[in-house]
Design brief:
Blueprint lengths: L3 H9 L7 H68 L1
Length: about 90
């Protein structure tokens, strides 16, 4: 929005041919419309990003579970080996 406003101001304001109050009204309506458009684009991008994050989180969860299963299996195996060597 910070980059858009100066561009709009430079391109639009000189072409507005009306009384000062009307120019202000049109300018504020333009700013409001631009803000709404930018907000919609950002919200759409945010929704896409959230979905990507959810997908990535699910994939990471699968990896973590498989790694955790391997860690627990290794721990159980080592505990058994240690118990067997201590009892000998």
């Amino acid at each position: 929005m910070e980059e858009l406003l100066p561009s709009l101001e430079k391109d639009m304001l000189p072409h507005l041919k009306a009384k000062k109050t009307e120019r202000k009204r049109v300018w504020f309506a333009t700013i409001e419309s631009a803000y709404i458009l930018v907000q919609e684009c950002l919200l759409e991008g945010l929704s896409v990003l959230k979905e990507e994050c959810k997908t990535a989180a699910c994939q990471q969860e699968v990896l973590i579970r498989s790694d955790m299963d391997l860690i627990l299996h290794s721990r159980t195996y080592l505990e058994g080996k240690l118990r067997a060597s201590v009892s000998e």
